[in-house]
């Protein structure tokens, strides 16, 4: 199981540790950068053997009323292809102004255009569309599929969508590699055998520094008091968010690096370590259950 | 049961080793402590001289070129159960190794603050069948109970 930490190249340039290799960045956020910066970034990625998953960022762009052209996206991917472990198709999410049918049609068309241009983009299925026929079509054709449209949705709707998806993908003829786009909830990752997932959660945890961790710890204890099921859940995985880890990784950075006054680099490294640890535990749990992704 | 001196050569390791995560910083600290103050705590072994607790200490003692060390023998049927019970719920324990070792623990007679149902719940975490996602058949298994509860509460 691989956790891709969402990071623009600004963040990645500040990641000093090579412990964790998987990061996701979006075309939308880096497309306007200077070519020499992108060249240097691309070289750094390859030298440090990072696995970069490129998302189109189309939905983020749409929210800002910016449209991404499939031709521009293709040109960018071709130019920097060596830097990417994989790249995702230019998907179109259904909105108030774009129907589910139209979103499916446009996403499929963009994938076809990219494939015709000689690329192999990872297709996207939007879970909240609840169109299992579309998912089955993708499962027939592809080995690796992005499941989008989960982050930011009503949690109950997202959970139901995930349950529907795995009800289909658990059939013996499929069992393909699925990626949870923007959804790294520990419950989710331990409940379903995702091949990979990504989110920005590590950045928010980093920004709030130790406050975030203290909140998580107190919340965990509260859950343990309130609910037997969660208590049982919490104990074996308490070390995912334990105080020992906190004291080890979230000490004031100024103690170690006087130049790093805001503790920026130390916090980045701390959260990279925490998520790398999470990836390790979840991967091993699935291995124990007999699910090993090649 | 008392502390005795024993040659390090006769102390055996079980297949699973320590249940704890590797931690080079703690290893360093223990190594320096042994060098400066000597062995302050006994190694815990069973009646067959298999190490139950003190894996890091054993490594530190060997690094410091000890040939014999203080040991304390305990009565236990299975080394894995004793490891699990002694270290129980310490933060530095590897949750996967902990759950695997829990298989050896007597659910009716152990030192852990866990009810039988809780122990069973842990052990079920290691079991998996793709059919679990056919919710009509096995509703309530794996984490479906938690997920369905949340869905029901917020739908």
Regarding quaternary structure, what we see is heterodimer
Query: SSE string of chain A, helix = H, strand = E?
Result: EHEHHEHHEHEHEHEHEHHHHH
Strand order of the largest sheet of chain B: 1-4-2-3
Helicity level of chain A = 40-55%
* Rounded radius of gyration of chain A (Å): 20 Å
Shape by Cα distribution of chain B = elongated
**Content-based structural category of chain A:** alpha/beta
Largest sheet of chain A: 8 strands, parallel
Q: Could you give the distance between the termini of chain B? A: 59 Å
Q: Tell me, what's the shape of chain A?
A: globular
Task: Count helical runs of chain B.
Answer: 7
Low-confidence stretches of chain A: 209-256
The total of beta strands of chain B comes to 4
| Major sheet attributes of chain B | 4 strands, mixed
Roughly what is the average pLDDT of chain B, rounded to an integer? Answer: 81
- Biggest interface pair, residues each? A-B, 39 and 38 residues
Biggest sheet, spatial arrangement of strands of chain A:
4-3-2-1-8-7-6-5
Low-confidence sequence ranges of chain B: 136-142
Helix content of chain B: 40-55%
Which percent band covers the strand fraction of chain B? 5-15%
| Beta-strand segment tally of chain A | 8
Task: Describe the fold and architecture.
The complex is a heterodimer of chains A (294) and B (155). Chain A is an alpha/beta fold and 294 residues long. Chain A has 14 helices and eight strands. An eight-stranded parallel beta sheet of chain A has the order 4-3-2-1-8-7-6-5. In chain A, α7 (132-141) crosses α8 (155-169), α10 crosses α11 (209-226) and α10 (201-207) runs antiparallel to α14 (264-288). Residues 209-256 of chain A have low confidence and may be disordered. With 155 residues, chain B is an alpha+beta fold. Chain B is 42% helix and 11% strand. Chain B has a four-stranded mixed beta sheet with strand order 1-4-2-3. The longest helix of chain B has 14 residues, at 24-37. Chain B is elongated. The chains are: A alpha/beta (294), B alpha+beta (155). The A-B interface holds A 154-156, 159-160, 163, 166-167, 170, 172, 175, 187, 190-192, 229-233, 235-240, 242-245, 248, 281, 284-286, 288-291 and B 21, 25, 89, 91-96, 98-100, 114, 118, 121-122, 125-128, 130-135, 142-147, 149-152, 154-155.
């Amino acid at each position: 199981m691989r956790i891709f930490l969402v990071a623009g190249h600004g963040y990645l340039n500040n990641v000093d540790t090579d412990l964790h290799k998987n990061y996701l960045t979006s075309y939308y956020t880096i497309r306007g950068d200077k070519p020499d910066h992108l060249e240097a970034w691309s070289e750094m990625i390859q030298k440090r053997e990072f696995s970069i998953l490129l998302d189109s960022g189309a939905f983020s762009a749409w929210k800002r009323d910016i449209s991404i052209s499939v031709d521009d996206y293709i040109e960018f991917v071709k130019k920097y292809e060596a830097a990417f472990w994989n790249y995702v198709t230019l998907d179109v999410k259904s909105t108030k102004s774009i129907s589910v049918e139209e979103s499916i049609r446009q996403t499929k068309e963009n994938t076809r255009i990219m494939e015709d241009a000689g690329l192999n983009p990872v297709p996207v299925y939007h879970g909240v569309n609840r169109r299992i026929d579309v998912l089955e079509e993708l499962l027939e054709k592809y080995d690796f599929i992005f499941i989008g449209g989960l982050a930011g949705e009503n949690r109950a709707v997202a959970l139901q969508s995930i349950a529907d998806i795995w009800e289909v993908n658990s059939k013996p003829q499929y069992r393909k590699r699925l990626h949870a786009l923007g959804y790294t909830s520990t419950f989710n990752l331990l409940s379903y055998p995702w091949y990979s997932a990504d989110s920005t959660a590590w950045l928010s945890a980093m920004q709030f520094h130790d406050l975030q961790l203290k909140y998580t710890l107190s919340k965990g204890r509260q859950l343990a008091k309130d609910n037997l099921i969660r208590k049982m859940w919490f104990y074996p995985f308490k070390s995912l968010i334990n105080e020992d880890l906190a004291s080890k990784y979230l000490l004031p950075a100024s103690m170690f690096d006087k130049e790093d006054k805001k503790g920026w680099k130390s916090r980045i490294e701390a959260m990279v370590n925490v998520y790398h640890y999470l990836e390790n535990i979840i991967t091993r749990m699935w291995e124990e259950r007999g699910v090993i992704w090649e | 049961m008392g502390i005795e001196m024993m040659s390090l050569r006769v102390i055996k390791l079980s297949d699973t080793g320590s249940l704890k995560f590797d931690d080079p910083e703690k290893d360093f600290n223990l190594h320096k402590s042994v060098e400066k103050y000597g062995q302050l705590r006994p190694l815990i072994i069973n009646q067959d001289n298999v190490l139950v607790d003190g894996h890091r200490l054993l490594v530190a003692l060997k690094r410091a070129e000890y040939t014999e060390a203080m040991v304390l023998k305990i009565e236990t049927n299975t080394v894995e159960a004793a490891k699990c019970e002694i270290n129980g719920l310490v933060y530095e324990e590897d949750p996967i190794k902990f759950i695997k070792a829990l298989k050896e623990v007597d659910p009716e007679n152990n030192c852990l603050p866990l009810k039988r149902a809780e122990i069973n719940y842990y052990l079920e975490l290691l079991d998996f069948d793709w059919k679990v996602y056919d919710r009509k058949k096995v509703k309530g298994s794996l984490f479906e109970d938690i997920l369905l509860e949340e869905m029901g509460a917020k739908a």
